[in-house]
Amino acid sequence: MLRLEGLSFAYPAQAPLFARLNAHVGPGQVLAVVGRNGAGKSTLLRLLNGLLRPDAGQIRIRGRSTSGLKVHEIARDVGTLFQTPEQQLFATRVYEEVAFGPRQLGLANAEVEDRVDLALRRTFLHHQAQRHPLDLSMAERRFTALASILAMHPAVLLLDEPQRGLDRLWTERLEAIIAGERKAGKAIVLICHDMDFVDRNAQMVLALGTGEASAWSTETFFGDLELLRRARVDTPSRLLLSRLEY
Ligand SMILES: Nc1ncnc2c1ncn2[C@@H]1O[C@H](COP(=O)(O)OP(=O)(O)OP(=O)(O)O)[C@@H](O)[C@H]1O
Ligand SMILES: [Mg+2]
Predict the structure, then answer these.
(1) What is the CATH classification number for the domain harbouring 26?
(2) In a domain, 60, yes or no
(3) Which of 13, 79, 120, 217 could form a disulfide with 149 if both were Cys (CB 3.0 to 4.6 A apart)?
(4) Is ligand 1 within 6 A of the CB of residue 39?
(5) Is residue 232 in contact with ligand 1, taking CB distance under 6 Å?
(6) pLDDT band at residue 126 under the 50/70/90 scheme
(7) How far is the CA of 37 from the centre of ligand 1 (A)?
(8) Does a structural domain hold residue 105?
(9) Which contacts of 139-144 are long-range, i.e. CB under 8 A and separated by 24 or more positions?
(10) What is the CA radius of gyration of the chain?
(11) Mean per-residue pLDDT for 93-114?
(12) Does some domain include residue 100?
């Protein structure tokens, strides 16, 4: 579904952020991208959605290289929830925010309405459709951005710290949406500093800033204390507890 093939990138006049990265995210799989602040996680997301271009290597979506595609062409397949979703909201009504993308696709009005309706229900925002996005709570604003992505039916979802600052109820709602997208066969890339969240939702981990160029299964990654130390992440509490039981 989503393939990173030998991906290398450096900002101008800076040391390389990563070299020859490889990963494959199949349908229904979640790849967590972890690592210290400044390791290049958000940069990797911008390579995947075409806002930046790699110095070497390529990205394939459903077998097709994105190197010749424009950002808006990539956006048909790839939906991005940015680290600060407030920056991606621009409409004066939640409904309009979510309807914008599907309208750009040239869909019939009835189809647009169906998609917006479903996306707002899935994000628990149906009763907020006529509100101004910036009048909503932080969680609702983030879910408005998420709804606008879901309404586009992208094959690949890129989520930059979607769980950050959410309370338990909204976290559960987010996890239900991730599970639903997995079931629908989407490929998901999840940037996350919360290893409990990674443990619950991801099957693979790519640890940036560690010198490792390939993804690991979450099981292998969380079992390797040396790797966790290099990635500067914690052991998930589930594993700490299971070790205490011995
Ligand atoms: N436009 C840019 N030009 C030059 N350097 C940049 C640019 N954007 C980011 N950087 C640098 O590249 C490095 C990686 O940044 P990035 O935002 O990808 O890290 P991150 O892993 O997402 O960090 P965080 O966990 O804090 O979100 C940082 O050192 C950052 O200062
Ligand atoms: Mg970041």
Answers:
(1) 3.40.50.300
(2) yes
(3) 79
(4) yes
(5) no
(6) very high
(7) 8
(8) no
(9) 139/165, 139/166, 139/167, 139/170, 141/85, 141/86, 141/89, 142/81, 142/85, 142/166, 143/170, 143/173, 143/174, 144/85, 144/89, 144/94, 144/97, 144/98
(10) 18
(11) 95
(12) no
